[in-house]
Amino acid sequence: MEHYGPETYGERVADVYDTWYKAGDPTPEVAFLHELAGGGRALELGIGTGRVALPLAASGVDVHGIEASPAMVERLRAKPGGETITTLIGDMADVAVDGTFALVFVVYNTFFMLLTQADQVRCFRNVAACLAPGGRFVVHALVPDLSSIERGEALEVRDASLDYVRLNATTFDRMNQRLDTTQVRITEQGTRLVHAKLRYAFPPELDLMAEVAGLSLEARYATFDKQPFTAESAMALSVYRA
Question: How many separate domains does the chain show?
């Protein structure tokens, strides 16, 4: 791949994103985020096609967004209610928005699409600068699988049926905490590849980034319905407070 920028993933997956991830019910996320917004404004980093933002806005929250991919924003704006969400096309690490927010959130591993530690720290600092007093920053991301990282690679069969196969192929760069993953979908009509690059971090590193930015960990859960976070949790839902 000759060039991979902040917009690349979204540009390559926008036309099928809603179909591929339609099974993801946003109801628990919306309930959790609505509670934290507390009647104030909310900002989603990596808003995508609005899977979470649209139902959150429909619940009464004033939602804004940042997204690197114009193709994803076009899909968002074509949906009912999409035009009412103020969305900035740009790098989410910059958080180049006006005013302050009661809640800033980034879900589904999107934070890890910032590919260096410096960019991730910059994002934390810029989020802290736009949070209202007592505001929260919610980061929802995977807990890296040490067994896969130590092997340096992983190949998962995610679905297999009569006319459809889905594979995830991933390689790890342990020195830089980077991974390259390609989702392969094979059907009778052909093969579709979508590639993503991530810079993963373990929860203690995220906590340190927050501290550097002047935020503190308020709570951490395994799920949006507030199941306890444990050593076996695959996802970390971290709530940082200004």
Answer: 2
Does residue 1 lie in a domain region?
A: no
Report the candidate in 164, 133, 149 with the shortest Cα–Cα distance to residue 241: 133
Give the phi and the psi of residue 189 in degrees, each rounded to 5: -85, -15
224 and 173 in one domain?
Answer: no
Q: Which domain holds residue 111?
A: 8-143+200-241
Q: Tens of pLDDT along 50-61?
A: 999 999 999 999
- State pLDDT tens for residues 62-74: 999 999 999 999 9
- How many other C-beta atoms lie within 10 A of the C-beta of residue 44? 28
Cα–Cα distance for residue pair 36/131, rounded to 1 Å: 13
**Residue found under tokens 């507030």:** 226
Q: Which residues contact 84 (CB under 8 A, 6 or more apart)?
A: 57
Q: Is the pTM of this model over 0.90?
A: yes
Q: Please give the structure tokens belonging to residue 178.
A: 């980077």
